[in-house]
Amino acid sequence: MSSSLDAGISKHQYVLGGNGEEVLLYMGRYLARDRSSGSHVSLDVNRPHAVFIAGKRGYGKSYTMGVLMEGLMLLPDGIREGVASVVIDTMGIFWTLGKSNDVQNKMINEWELEPKGFDADIFVPAGSVSSYEKRNIDVRPLSIPISQIDGYEWCRLFSIDAVSSPGVLIIRTIEDLRAEGDFSFEDIIDSIIDDERSDVVTKSAVENHFRTASSWGVFAERSQGIEEMVKGGSTSVIDVSTIRSEAVRSALVGSIARSIYHLRLEARRSFERVMMGDQDVDQGIPMVWLFIDEAQQFLPSKGRTLASDILLNEWLKQGRQPGLSLVLATQRPSSIHPDVLSQSDIVICHRLTSQDDISVLESVRPTYMKDNFGDSIMKMGSEKGAAFVVDDNTEASHIIRMRPRLSWHGGDDPSIIF
Ligand SMILES: Nc1ncnc2c1ncn2[C@@H]1O[C@H](COP(=O)(O)OP(=O)(O)OP(=O)(O)O)[C@@H](O)[C@H]1O
Fold first, then answer.
1. Domain boundaries in the chain?
2. Running DSSP on this structure, what letter comes out for residue 382?
3. Whole-angstrom Cα distance, residue 292 to residue 313?
């Protein structure tokens, strides 16, 4: 058995998500009814998982995500390198992973742990790099190739009807250019100007849309950053908080998720070749854990975004085979796509009080859960960091006190009095 954090873990520990081949990520301790701490609890991360984290504002969702990210970086040497974490940071709060959590030092010591900072690479849209550098935050540029977005997707990004005159021009132009390979915004604008079937007003409107798109700093002729962000043993934080448009954020997340999925399919094929004895094969990228906070932005309960198909169909439903794990967090379970709840094998539920949210969880309550969600959440109480966890692998549910974070938590509410 390989343990991710030996301090505090002894014989009395319980393993969630396991199937006997244990690579353990330390989560915390059982929380008894009298509020005392019981056995230590770890998550077996040897195989991929789909983890859903819910909870109302301020009760520990993003903190718990941070605990899972740290846990992967704390895996023992030789195992850690088999996993890469990619974090979609919608609030710009995870760049603090690099700094040790000195403010919660006392609590961390009570858990017989030590504050610690981790190496995390921060990626931002190439067009926003200078604004981070001005604040002394070290970041790397990220760009999505323009050619990865098809004509229909550009129409959705611009909120243009695909059968309107501008929509028809966009789809014709983009599909012609995509047939030839990579291209720039200048190439698109040249093609629009040269188009012989559209009128001047339509051409000018479409040209303006693409000029605006080039100012977002998200799309470029060639991809930048994607391959660097999935390195064994590393965590890459993709700060999308500077992108105001949810449609553009979704396009970026969808593109990253698609690229990683295809790279993992290749890696999976290489792995099979190695298992068959072929030694000269490039093993490709490691298994990937993708973390998405405020996940309802990308996987809403109604409608689709430019990220929803790839996340639902390839990552959530088929991710185990190519070795892809997904961690999705939301304040509002009732706002997220119902497949997220039904397809997650680990549900971590912090405090919730909205009846709509509790009812949605209740609608997918597994038969092995004795109490309903509402009663279980009541029993858990209002302690920050307490969570009700349902594990479909061991078919059991538990109340857990998540361990404190070792690295600085960037999501704390600002207060007037320090
Ligand atoms: N396991 C824990 N141990 C100790 N303190 C915790 C724990 N989890 C959360 N907290 C405390 O609760 C605060 C709020 O947690 P967090 O920022 O994760 O809330 P959230 O649910 O993500 O809220 P939001 O929806 O506003 O992002 C943290 O800043 C931290 O002080």
1. 49-138+225-402, 145-220
2. S
3. 16
Let me know how many helices (H) and strands (E) the chain has, helices first: 12, 16
Which atom number of ligand 1 is nearest to the Cα of residue 107? 4
- H or E, element range at 324: strand 324-330
* pLDDT computed for residue 413 by the predictor: 64
Give, in order, the Cα–Cα distances in Å from 352 to each of 19, 25, 299, 362, 379.
30, 25, 20, 12, 12
Contact 184, 190 (CB under 8 A): no
Alpha-carbon distance 211 to 43, whole Å? 48
Q: In the chain, helix, strand, coil percent, each to 5?
A: 35, 20, 40
The set of residues, in sequence order, having a beta carbon less than 8 Å from that of 64 and lying 6+ positions away, is 53, 329, 348, 350, 385, 387, 402
Residues with CB under 6 Å of ligand 1 are 55, 57-63, 331, 384-385, 402, 404, 409, 411-412
In this prediction, residue 75 carries a pLDDT of 96
Alpha-carbon distance 168 to 75, whole Å? 51
Query: Which residue, among 282, 344, 286, has the nearest Cα to 315 in the 3D structure?
Result: 344
Rounded average pLDDT per 10-residue block, the chain, 418 residues: 43 77 90 89 94 96 97 95 96 93 95 96 92 88 94 96 97 96 96 96 97 94 90 95 93 95 89 75 88 97 95 95 96 97 96 94 89 89 94 94 95 57
150 Cα: distance to centroid of ligand 1 (angstroms): 39
Task: Please tell me the predicted confidence (pLDDT) of residue 6.
Answer: 47
Buried b (16+ CB within 10 A) or exposed e, 368-377: eeeeebeebb
DSSP state letters, 78-93 = TTGGGEEEEEEESSS-
Nearest ligand 1 atom, CA 55: 21
CB 388, CB 376: distance < 8 Å: yes
Which CATH number is 49-138+225-402's, of 3.40.50.300, 2.160.20.10, 3.40.640.10, 3.30.70.1560? 3.40.50.300
Closest C-alpha to ligand 1, atom 17:
411
Q: Burial level of 292, CB count in 10 A (0-12/13-18/19+)?
A: buried
